[in-house]
Design brief:
There is one protein chain. The chain has a single domain, classed as Oxidoreductase, molybdopterin-binding domain (Sulfite Oxidase, Chain A, domain 2). Helices cover 16% and strands 20% of the residues.
Length: 340
């Protein structure tokens, strides 16, 4: 039997169980702003205009606005000297413009902080502490161990990739992620020959995550899984940064997964455990609603969600609506994984 799910309406997202929207007084308190939004001090020192001052790019590569507004106050995984990383020339641009960082940072799906639907998650992450951060390597591996995220970030050279990102709720964006190939991480974990799947489990910190405190029937912590051939595909990225700096909390700090041909909920955020298994693991949304969120969850415009069409998507940066592309535009690279 599928458990019932508490799904707050959009109107109810600012109810008494969630922290209030920042007041004018809070905005005047610099220390509180830093804590609530996880920002570095550069913007506050330089003033609001600094948020979009100038362009940053490598020669011959696409540009995006340099911004201090969303740079986290904590050190990025691996150290500041690794950012910004060199952009991978194969994935240096998409078929439409980059989403402005302000838009990408202010609409996110992260039920641990803001249950119900995508929204201003950045307003609810003030108590979250992503530093220090350990990740447990477990299951069918040669050696189970706990490792620091800084060690993970140095397994292979970090690189920047511009990917399309598609949410199951029909919004999309194009952003430059910083990370390393998931295949390099999987190899470093040393799974045994029996391993066929990898499961990612996110944090459980109700004292830091208001969505977990009002979790209802949600089976926290969040957990997701991939087939091993999906996890080791060249497109799959273990992500530690975005827009040339470390991940803000609302994007899954300090480390997350990005699988660009799948709906966004398959890309586990803020994970603390990686487990290799022989059998297909359960996943958070599939266990709750298997007819709506199957294990594979590839972006397929011809396969509607039971409650809405997936034929189109809206870019959160421009508001433009686009036809959704099979596998989110990555069919040439990944369709062979599902042939036969």
């Amino acid at each position: 039997m599928t458990p019932s799910i508490h799904r707050p309406s959009a109107r109810g997202l600012r109810g008494p169980d969630l922290p209030p929207v920042l007041s004018e007084t809070a905005w005047r308190d610099r220390r509180r702003v830093l804590k609530l939004l996880g920002l570095g001090g550069g913007l506050l020192a330089a003033g609001p205009a600094a948020a979009w001052a100038g362009d940053r790019c490598d020669p011959g590569q696409a540009t995006y606005p340099a911004s201090e507004r969303w740079v986290p106050a904590w050190p990025p995984a691996g150290g500041k000297e690794l950012y910004p990383a060199t952009r991978n020339p194969t994935w240096k641009q998409a078929d439409r413009a980059l989403t402005p960082e302000d838009a990408a940072a202010q609409k996110n799906n992260f039920y641990e902080f803001l249950p119900g639907r995508a929204g201003p998650v950045h307003r609810y992450v003030g108590d979250f502490e992503p530093d220090p951060w350990k990740v447990e390597i477990a299951g069918l591996v040669e050696e189970e161990r706990a490792v620091d995220v800084d060690e993970i970030a140095r397994i292979a050279p970090l690189e920047e990739r511009v990917y399309r990102f598609r949410c199951v709720e029909r919004w999309s964006m194009v952003v430059p992620w910083t990370g390393l190939p998931m295949a390099a991480f999987v190899k470093w974990c040393r799974p045994t020959s029996e391993a066929r799947y990898v499961k990612f489990t996110s944090f459980l910190r109700p004292e830091q995550a208001p969505g977990q405190r009002r979790g209802g029937s949600y089976p926290w912590p969040y957990y997701e899984g991939l087939r091993l051939d999906e996890a080791t595909h060249p497109l799959t990225l273990l992500v530690t940064g975005i827009f040339g700096h470390g991940l803000p909390a609302q994007h899954g700090a300090p480390v997350r997964v990005v699988v660009p041909w799948k709906y966004g909920y398959k890309s586990a955020k803020s994970f603390v455990r990686v487990e290799f298994t022989r059998d297909e693991p359960g996943t958070f949304w599939s266990d709750l609603q298997p007819l709506e969120y199957p294990f594979l969850s590839n972006v397929e415009p011809d396969v509607p969600h039971p409650r809405w069409s997936q034929a189109t998507e809206t870019d959160i940066g421009t508001g433009d609506r686009f036809p959704t592309r099979p596998y989110n535009g990555y069919a040439d690279e990944v369709a062979k994984l599902y042939a036969g």
